[in-house]
Amino acid sequence: MQQFSNLEISEIKSRIDQIQQLLGSREGEAPAERNVDRPAASPPELVDRVAFNIQMRRIRKSHFAGAQMSGANWDMMLDLMLARTHGRLLSASDLATGAEVPLSSGLRMIAALEQQGYVRRTLDEKDRRRSIVRLTDEGAARMMAYFDAVNNAWADQQRRAA
């Protein structure tokens, strides 16, 4: 598990202080002007949430070194992992639609994931105009390792909070 440097912790605290000041300046506003649907997180909770999200991003980066694993690419990997878990097949157009990108962009992203060895494309036997995209064993193993690392980081965070 990667630890945060003092500089990173300082930056997080500074951002939280800015948020607190912003929220404090809104105290005098009428309740209708504030977002009353969600209770405000206490500063320690907010620090923990922000820090954990940063940690998740770093874990992802370390498990997929050299690959762009954010945004639509990450959405595709998540969709493929879920499809694999449920025994479903996804086409390239399914992935592009799910990631909310044009098909041409989706195909480029799939090609990049394929080049990294995380996915493979095959022709759909029922409709040879479509390509089916699947996680490779390597892609699935990296996804599982990522989720295991996130679960371990979450358990560590819960132990420290208790």
Tell me the CATH superfamily of the domain at 71-141: Winged helix-like DNA-binding domain superfamily/Winged helix DNA-binding domain
The ordered string of helix (H) and strand (E) elements is HHHEHHEEH
Outline the low-pLDDT stretches.
none
What is the CATH architecture descriptor of the domain at 71-141? Orthogonal Bundle
Rg result: 20 Å
- How many individual β-strands? 3
Strand content range: 5-15%
CATH structural fold name of the domain at 71-141: Arc Repressor Mutant, subunit A
In brief:
With 162 residues, the protein is mostly helical. It is built from six helices and three strands, in the order H-H-H-E-H-H-E-E-H. The protein has a domain of 71 residues: Winged helix-like DNA-binding domain superfamily/Winged helix DNA-binding domain (Arc Repressor Mutant, subunit A).
